[in-house]
Amino acid sequence: MFFISSETGWTVGVPDAINTSIFKTTNGGINWVVQSHNVSSFVPSCVFFSTPEIGWITGYDGTILKTTNSGNNWSCTNTGSYCITGAFGDLRSVYFNSTSLGWVVGQYGMIIKTTSGGDPISVANSGISISNDFELFQNYPNPFNPKTTINYTLSESEYVTIKIYTVLGKEVATLVSAKQNPGLYSIQWDAGNFSSGIYFYKIITTSFEKTRRMVLLK
C-alpha cells in the first residue's frame, strides 16, 4: 500500500480475477476502485509513487509496471532488453527519490537501478550478490503455462550449457550454450509448442552439473 496524500493512495495484491490486482482510493480508503493493466497472470508485490501522477509497481514474475497518469493506465517498463518475462526473477520492492532515480530489489540479492524513470532499467552490478558456489534455482512459476524462468549463478567464468529433457530423457531444447562470466543469470523457456507433462532442465559446466524438475500444465 502507498499513499501520496491523506486522501489518495493505492494498494496491490494477489488478484481474485483477471486484472483486479490494483486498487485506488481518493477519499482516504473509504472507497476503492480497480485500475486495469494488460499483463496476464500479474501478481504485484509493491507500489510506489513519486508524484501524484507517476508511479511504479513491481511483480513476483519479474514485471515492472509504470503509470504517468495516476494509475489510469499501467504499462511495462523496459528492463534492459526485456519488458516482462521474469527477466530478474521475483521483484519484491520499489523505491524512487525522484521521477527518474529509483531502485528495485528482488530474489538472489538482485538490485535494479534506473536513472531515467525506468526507460530503460539496468542491473546495478554492485548490487548483485554472486554466490560462492554454482547454483541452479527452481524455475518460476512451476507448474507453468507456457513460459517459465530459470535462474542460475556462476562463481567463475565457465562454458555453460542448459538443456531441457522429457521424463524419458529425450533432449527437446537447448537454452544456453556459451561461455559466461561470474554472476546471476536468468533465462526463459517458452513451451508453447510442447505438450503438458513433466520436464527436466539441466545445467552443465566443467565443474558443476545439476538437474531440476518442472511441470508444464496446459
Provide a quick synopsis of the model.
This protein is an all-beta fold and 218 residues long.
Radius of gyration: 19 Å
Q: How far apart, in Å, are the first and last alpha carbons?
A: 33 Å
Q: What is the highest CATH level, the class of the largest domain?
A: Mainly Beta
Quaternary organisation? single chain
Into how many domains do the coordinates divide?
2
- What percent strand? over 45%
Secondary-structure element pattern, one letter each? EEEEEEEEEEEEEEEEEEE
Helix content: under 10%
What structural class should be given to the helix and strand makeup?
mainly beta
Instruction: Report strand order across the widest sheet.
Output: 1-2-3-4
- CATH topology of the largest domain: the name is Methylamine Dehydrogenase, Chain H
Q: Pick out the low-confidence regions.
A: 78-87, 120-131
User: What is the overall number of helices?
Assistant: 0
Give an account of the 3D structure.
This protein is mostly beta strands and 218 residues long. The chain folds into 2 domains: 2-127, Methylamine Dehydrogenase, Chain H, CATH 2.130.10.10; 135-216, Immunoglobulin-like. Helices cover 0% and strands 46% of the residues. It has strands spanning 2-3, 9-12, 22-25, 33-35, 44-49, 55-59, 64-67, 75-76, 91-96, 102-106, 111-114, 122-123, 135-136, 147-154, 158-166, 171-180, 183-190, 197-204, 209-216. A 4-stranded antiparallel beta sheet has the order 1-2-3-4, with no helix packed on it. The chain has a 4-stranded antiparallel beta sheet with strand order 5-6-7-8, with no helix packed on it. Strands 9-10-11-12 form a 4-stranded antiparallel beta sheet, with no helix packed on it. The two termini are 33 Å apart. The model is unreliable at 78-87 and 120-131 (pLDDT under 50).
